[in-house]
Amino acid sequence: MTNTRQIGLRNLGEVEQLVMDYIWAHGPSTSEACREALASSRPMKDSTIRTVLRRLEEKGYLAHETEGRTFIYRASDARQNVAVRAVKGIIDRFCGGSAEELVLGMVDGAVLSRKQLERLARRIDEKPIAEKAAAVKQSSAKKFTKKEETP
For the chain, which residues make up each domain, given as ranges? Predict the structure, then answer.
């Protein structure tokens, strides 16, 4: 049995973030595995970790499957995908939907350096080349398959 929800942009508390970091790093886990793993930095009762996991599931960050009577929790999406959606929400709410405005604000606020911006620019320049190469490869594969099928 699987239970999933769409990830929203609801903020994570400190303990919720610790749990998500653990699950993103270690994959599907039981409440006991999470509790034991976090015990050295954040000791919790069994009922507390179960509450945290349930709230993360309600917020859409986790889903669970049931094995017997044990819930196995897994991240609903990869960390990077969650981060991208969170940033998109920030762009929409605070920058009128303009990613450029956000990046310029990060430059003005010294969050991004010239070196980082240059690295981003190179990556952007390379992206169309990679997309074109993938399209050519896919087109070639289709032609090759058609030639093989023709007697």
Answer: 2-77
The CA distances from residue 2 to 9, 54, 67, 72, in Å, are 22, 14, 10, 10
> What residues are paired with 105 via a beta bridge?
none
- Summarised one tens digit per residue, pLDDT across range 70-100 is 999 999 999 999 999 889 989 999 999 999 9
Q: Are 135 and 129 in contact (CB under 8 A)?
A: no
User: Distance between CA atoms of 51 and 74, rounded to whole angstroms?
Assistant: 15
Query: Residue 48 and residue 28: Cα distance in Å, rounded?
Result: 19
Tell me 96's DSSP state: T
Look up the CATH architecture of domain 2-77: Orthogonal Bundle (1.10)
What's the pTM value of the predicted model, to 2 decimals?
A: 0.68
